[in-house]
Amino acid sequence: MSQMKKSNEMKWFVFLGVALLLISAGCASNKSMVGSDAAGLPQISNFADDIKDITLPTELAWDRKNSMVIKTESFRGGIFTYKGRVEVMSLKDYMVASMQDNKWRLVGETASKDIMLAFVKPNKTCMMVISEGVLGKTELKLYVAIDKTAGANASASSNSFSQ
Residue 140: which of 51, 54, 37, 76 has the closest Cα? Predict the structure, then answer.
């Protein structure tokens, strides 16, 4: 009889352990989903100092090996590669909405096997290519160019016109 009681206690212990594990896993995943709006998404500003207005879904991870940053006195930008398990069309819709929320203007779009989107701001250009990657991962490649002298040139040219 005590053998059966120990067996039942062990089953309850295992059941409670599994239940706690599932609950804690559920809470952990909820924490990452709490900030799923544009303000809570990771930005690529960690990789290129001036790019704080391009937000990405949390499912994408930066692929450092296939990325590069370019910094000069007058120019900043680079090629940023991200990969993750997201659907191509869902990612396209997300990126268009996110970029427009951050005041980027969509100026071009093409679609064939891959999707290419082009966005501009007064001194910034961002082209992105969304493609199906290997092993079910989608790839997002950003080509970003920031002209750091554009603001200085604009004020200098407006001064020359006012004279």
Answer: 54
